[in-house]
Amino acid sequence: MSDSSLAELLRSRGLRLTAQRQLILEAVSELGHATPEQVHNAVKEVAAGVNITTIYRTLELLERLGLVTHTHLSHGSPTYHAAGANEHVHLVCRQCGAVDEIDPEVVAPLAGRLADERGFQADIGHMAIFGICGDCRNGDIS
Known about the structure:
- By secondary structure, the protein is of the alpha+beta class.
- The protein folds into 2 domains: 80 residues, Winged helix-like DNA-binding domain superfamily/Winged helix DNA-binding domain (Arc Repressor Mutant, subunit A), CATH 1.10.10.10; 49 residues, Dna Ligase, domain 1 (2-Layer Sandwich).
- The protein is 42% helix and 15% strand.
- It has 6 helices and 5 strands; from the N terminus they run ααααββββαβα.
- The chain has a 3-stranded mixed sheet, with no helix packed on it.
- A hairpin with a 7-residue loop joins strand 1 and strand 2.
- Helix 2 crosses helix 4 and helix 3 crosses helix 4.
- The termini are far apart.
- The model has no long low-confidence stretch (mean pLDDT 87).
């Protein structure tokens, strides 16, 4: 999203584009999948005065605006990524911690079955499947 588009979106909601908001959105986009702490570390390299509370508040705001989304890939902090990125399901290795992505169509039959049998609408964009990756299963990770 361009600076002017972001500024217009924020203005339409009665907010203004601050340097901190811009830096945080850029960090999320550049990092791909990042926890608030990782975003904070990236932003601190450019603007040392930005505190972790500002990071959390801004990520929540950016998510309400539909600019970022989050998922829980571990028991810790949520992981954020740009909302403009292709929707995907996360595959998280419990052994090495690697995160891979698959197309949501892979789990669409499961989502359809849950809807049909339980009336449950799965939010595939927030889905994470935990297991052991192929490298760990094959002993390729040292």
